[in-house]
Here is the input.
Amino acid sequence: MSNPVVTNQPGAGGYGTNVQTGDWSTGLCSCFSDCLVCALGCFCPIALSCYTANKYGENPCLGCVPGGMTAMRTHMRLTYGIQGTVCNDALMTFFCGLCELCRMAREIRIRNGDILQ
Here is the structure.
């Protein structure tokens, strides 16, 4: 019996790539590019956080747990190859929470094909 020859090394895991070179599909204050997300973010942000977590494939309660939005933003960045740091994720969700929540929801809707960019 001969030993098999390895020609391709295994990948880096579920995140695709460890190099983040991309950007978010929309800006932080681009709320009116998706009026449904904007309305939910303004009038019922808890429902939007549950919706966003659910659409991303996480437990809907993740958005209601302290630090949950930061964790989801970090995972989303790594999955989609978006530039940033964990520190930036924490600062953005703390100081610009509603706007960042809307941007994350828009990103998921754009990448799922629910809305056109």
Summary: The first helix runs from residue 35 to 43.
